[in-house]
Every structure is written in structure tokens, then in C-alpha cells.
Amino acid sequence: MDALSQLFYLHGIGYEYTKYTGEHVVFSEQTRKLALQCCGVDTSDAAQIDKLNYQLDAATWLTLAPAVSLVKQPSNVLKVRIKETDAHHKITLNIPALNIKLQFEQIADYAPLGEYFLNDCRYIEIALPLTHLPTGYYDALLSMGAQSATTQIWSIPEKVYQIADSKRLGLSIQLYTLKNQAGMGIGDFNDLLELTTLCAKQKMDYILLNPLHLLFADNPECASPYNPSNRALLNPLYIAINLSPDSINNPALDDYLSSCCLTSHSEQDITFINYKTVTEQKYNAFKLLFVHFQQQGSQARQDEFTAFCKQHRDVLAMLETTEPTFDHYLQWQAHSQLILCQQHCIDQGMAIGLINDLAVGCAKEGSEYKHQQKLFSQDATVGAPPDPWAESGQNWGLPAINPQRLADNNYYFYRSLIRANMNAVGGLRIDHVMAIRRLWWCFNNNNSQDGCYVYYPFEHLLAILKIESHLNKAVVIGEDLGVVPPEVKEALVSSGIFSNSLFYFEKQQNDEFVNRDELSEQCLLMIANHDVPPFVGWWQHSDLTLKQQYQLIDATKHQQLVQQRQQEQQRLVDFINAQDTHSDMSLNTDAFAIYSALALCLAKSPSRLFALQIDDLDKQCYPVNIPGTDKEYPNWRRVLTHTCEDIFTDNASLLTAIHSMRNG
To which protein family does this belong (predicted)? Predict the structure, then answer.
């Protein structure tokens, strides 16, 4: 293997992949060079290439242990690397936080796990048996003769945090779409609080949220929760004014809310959120809350705020603001209200409660990128390879993280990110979970887009998910739609991570829907999500009409897609009738009757998690997002037609029947 090929491998630059057509694709050397150059490597500098190869390969054998040592439960062995001629020495391990000090003698008797030859010396890797360590991260010191090394031991459970092995029913929502009881034009934590009560009464165990990440208050039209400013911070627009203690006895706030011409909930009749108006009005109200807190907040609350700022100091430092105390206050309020909602779920007997959603990346214009810029590659963004829906591939425009920099400070960035998104919830869905293994990078090649897969430290990132899920008592769902490497699917299953299936895409080779009983058990099953049309809209072809209306497709393509949709509808009707011998559905059956029959049918599936989408229960026709559009369609703005209470009242018998099916 030549030096450049070795560096491609050590740096995670992919060599090949299997296209959706089954075609075997090998990346050109030029493409791979461009990917490496995005990591700051001069591919024409032989000396730099040799130095990096030495650092990433040979040098790892010259220290007793790496910066991070993975100790997997229940085997509990610590791997160390020693020069074979030093095997007569004893090894001492000290873990101060656990008050553990161990000595290992007769090192020469340990069977080598691996070997490496360097400068005529043989280095060997051996496994030292440890006692059981609690799940977590522990600084440790290893010493052998005159040699010593510090390492951080990660004690890793076999699986992520698990809940009782039974079927769970839940609701998936986009929080901003809820009809706002306060008339402020956007769903907030108080609406979520009321929704938790409705869900609990219907014996639901969880609510799957959209990403709650910080967006752009100074550019409110950037509304996508999957293109955030910062994934470790919360979007203040979700703060409910009336839930804040600082709204009590606050006449200035009362006057403002009365005078700013906000409509009452019953008078609201909007289809899309006006983010510019909502942001202006809510931030004006936030400032009146903050002033009241500064002037009349109790000492206990002042102390609570100070403690919050201290605990979240590193994350809060990423806020780009001219008023740091005010913006820290908003994060405190948002965090407190999220905790309140989750606690309300648990108090009402919901097994999981809230499930957060982690976006795959952040916006280049945002604070996460600007404050962590050294972690990111140069001029590479993430996307997806060609697929049937995008023959030229997709470029999501999110800056790509350099896999080699993720290890900085013992993976502090990723650990903090996962912890922030598991905090105050009962579960975490990870959008595009393949990212912990590989991501498709997009970059420029002679004024045209090029791309390849780049691989990430899979074992370490998976270990963080396992550890953090136990420390935070949060289940983990990995969104694995699309082309997923076999090793990722196997790891999800063996690690107890739920996969995520959309029924629309669960097909056999002949394009018929898979048998219900063949659906995965370790799975979050959904009929639809934010990237596909709501069911009624799908059945009535509203999404296809919209695409033609917005000139995304022409009349010929529209007719072609309508014919394909009709075939899909017939397959769906056949699926329902085959699963339920008493069913007599047809293409002429009412759309919501078809949806209800499908939901009842899927409720009997083996999948342990089954989520209904509130948009489907609301009989929505408009999608919340049309993938591939930005300015053409008002993505991430469509609100629900009815209140949550009305939706649950209208669907009470259906929800009761589904619950009965799940537990029958």
C-alpha cells in the first residue's frame, strides 16, 4: 500500500460503495484527494503524508494506552500496548474517581491480541482484566517501569438504555404546528404540556418531537429545525409566556399582550406561520419577562439561574449575543419548561415521555459552526449519494465534521451534544443515524459537484450513545431510512437501538408492501413523517398537485406520478384487505377511513414502538416540508387546522381501538 492510499484509509476516506441500483462504484483517486484536502491535508506534500501516517498508525503503539480506552461490559478488559521486551515489568492502573488501584504482574503470560513491528522491535497488545466499573467516563493513570500514560476509561454497557419489553404507542408532532392557546401564532411548551395530558388519557407512552434546536432570531425566515444554528441550545420561540413565573404580577407584560393585537386562539385561522411577526412579538414579551425577573425575581430564582448558567457554561458560551444575560435567561426558561413537560409525562404514567430529535448537522451561518470551526472540514458539506428521488445526489449544505478532529479532548464535542439533547427527555431520535459510521461529503471538483463517503469513529460514537443513554435514562432511535451499511444495521440491533421505519417504504422486491408480521420488532414504526405527505394529502394526491402548482414538475410528470400513486394506493388497499379478512376497502373508500384501517392494522405489528402522526389525525392535506424545496414552498410553517383537544375528541374511538390492538 502506497503512502497516500494508507492515509486515505487511516483518515476515513471511502474507497467504494454500492449504489441504490446495485452498481458497484469505486471513487477516483482525484475525488479521494479532494476529500482529504477538505481535511486540511496537502496531498502533494509527501512529508506531511508520511507524518500523518506515522501519527495515525505507528505512534499509537508507542504509548501504553490511547487517550480514550473502551472497556466494554461485561468482559471489562482494558487493552494496553507494550514493547515485547518490557513484558517483565508489572503494570499499575490507578482510577482515582473510583478509588481503584490495580497491579498486573506476569505480563509475559498474557496472550497477545495483536502485534506491530517498528524499528526492529515487536509491540504487542494485551487485555488486562478489570473489575466491573459503573457506566461512565473515568480518568486513569497507567504505569509500567519508567513509562506512564493517562487515559480516559469509558465503561460501556452492552446496550443503550432499555424500557420494559412491551409494545408502546405514541404521537409524533412538529411542536410549532400546534394551535397555540395563547394566540401567539406558534406552538409552545404550554401547548405541549396540554398535549401530554391528552396523550396520557389515551394510554400513549411517548411524544416524538421535531428538533428543538436554536434557530436564528435575527433571521426568523430560516425556519428549518434540521438546519439549526446550534444543536446544543433550545429555540426560545417554544417558551410559553404564561408558564414563566415572571409573567405573574407583570402589568407591563399584560399591557403589551393586550395592545399588540394578538388574536385569541378561537379566532386564529392561519395556515402558515409568519415567523417574522411571531419572533418580533415573542421577543418583545421575553424582554418584559426578563426585566421583571431582574427587578422582582426572588433570591431563590436568582440562585437557580446562576446555577443553570454555571452548569451549562460551555454551551451558553456559544451564543452569539450582545445581551448574554438575556439570552442565557431564555435558555434557562426554555430548559425549565421542557423539564416541566417531561416530568408531567412521567407523573401521568407515560413510560417514555418526550423523545427529542437530533439533526444530522448545523448551518454554516450558525453559532455551533462558528464556535467549533476547528472541528469542521474545509469546503465540504454533507448530503446523500444518487437515489431514485435525486439522480444527481443531494447536498444538504451542512458543513462536514472532520472525523479526525472528533477525538479532540476525548470526544468532548459529541459527548456534550448527545448529553444536551438527552437532557430532560425520555428518548432521543437521531436523524440520519448512518452519520455515526459514514457521511456522504459534497465538494467542488473543477466547478462541478463531486462527492464520496467519509467514515467516522463508529465504535467511539456508538459507545457515547450507550453511555449517555444510561446516564440520562433515555431510549435511542436511529433513523435508518435509505442506504444503510450492514454493519450499522447489525450494530443498531445488537446495541438495543430502535430503527425507524416509514410504512410507505416497507416494500418487497415486487413492490408490494411487506407482510405486517415481518415488520421489525426493534423499530419505531410510522406511517408518515415530516418528509412525506400526510396520509389524507397522499391519498388525495394533494402533494402532487402542489408540486405542479409550484412548478417543481410539469403536467406530463404529474400525470406519470398520479398513475404511480394510484398503483401504490391499490397495493395499500390490497395490503389492508389481506391483513384483515373482514375489511372491504377500495380506491373509492374515504381517505381517512383508509388511514384508520391502516393504523388499526399496523397496531398489530411486532414493532415495539408505533407512532401516529398528529398531522394525519388532523386530516392534513398540506405537507409540513417538501424535500428539495427551499423558497418554492413554505416549508416548516404549516400549522394544524384544529386544536389538540378537538383532534383527540374527534379521534377518541380510533385511539382507543388502536390502544386495544397494541395490547390485545
Answer: Belongs to the disproportionating enzyme family.
pLDDT at 388: 65
User: What does the alpha-carbon distance between residue 657 and residue 218 come to, in Å, rounded to a whole number?
Assistant: 46
Bond preceding residue 74 cis, omega within 30 of 0? yes
Per-residue confidence (pLDDT) for residue 390, from 0 to 100: 66
**Is the CB of residue 498 less than 8 Å from the CB of residue 478?**
yes
259 pLDDT exceeds 90? no
Give the model's pLDDT for residue 260. 78
CB 543 within 8 A of CB 553: no
C-alpha cell at 54: 506515522
Q: Please work out, in degrees rounded to the nearest 5, the angle formed at the alpha carbon of residue 379 by the alpha carbons of 223 and 51.
A: 140
What is the CATH architecture of 65-156?
Sandwich (2.60)
Largest CA distance in the chain: 83
Residues 6 or more apart whose Cβ sits within 8 Å of residue 163: 351, 352, 475
Q: What is the pLDDT of residues 277-319, one digit of tens each?
A: 999 999 999 999 999 999 998 999 999 999 999 999 999 999 9
Q: Would you kindly state where each structural domain of the chain is located, as residue ranges?
A: 3-58, 65-156
Hey, is 327 helix, strand or coil? helix
pLDDT digits (tens, 9 = 90+) for 395-405: 999 999 999 99
Record the cell numbers describing residue 331, joined without a space.
435558555
Dihedral angle over CA of 238, 244, 247, 248, nearest 10: 150
The helix/strand count (H/E) of the chain reads as 20, 24
Q: What is the pLDDT of residues 155-164, one digit of tens each?
A: 999 999 999 8
Chain center to CA of 366: 18
Between 122-131, 253-262, 461-470, 537-546, the lowest mean confidence (pLDDT) is in 253-262
| 604 Cβ contact list (under 8 Å, min separation 6) | 516, 579, 661, 662, 664
* Cell digits of residue 477: 432511535
Q: What is the pLDDT of residues 507-524, one digit of tens each?
A: 888 889 999 999 999 999
CA-CA distance, 309 to 332, in Å (whole number)? 8
HEC string of 6-28? HHHHHCCECCEEECCCCCEEECC
CB 640 within 8 A of CB 614: yes
Which residues, in sequence order, are bridge partners of residue 149?
142
Cα 483 to its chain centre, rounded Å, is: 17
Q: Which residues of 39-54 are buried (b: 16+ CB within 10 A; e: fewer)?
A: bebebeeeeebeebbe
**Gap between the Cα atoms of 155 and 78, Å rounded:** 10
Q: Looking at the predicted structure, is the pLDDT value of residue 364 above 50?
A: yes
Distance CA 4, CA 15 (A): 12
Residue with cell string 414504526: 525
3-state secondary structure 369-397: HHHCHHHEEEEEEEEECCECCECCCEEEE
Residue 507 DSSP one-character state:
B
Mean pLDDT of the chain: 94
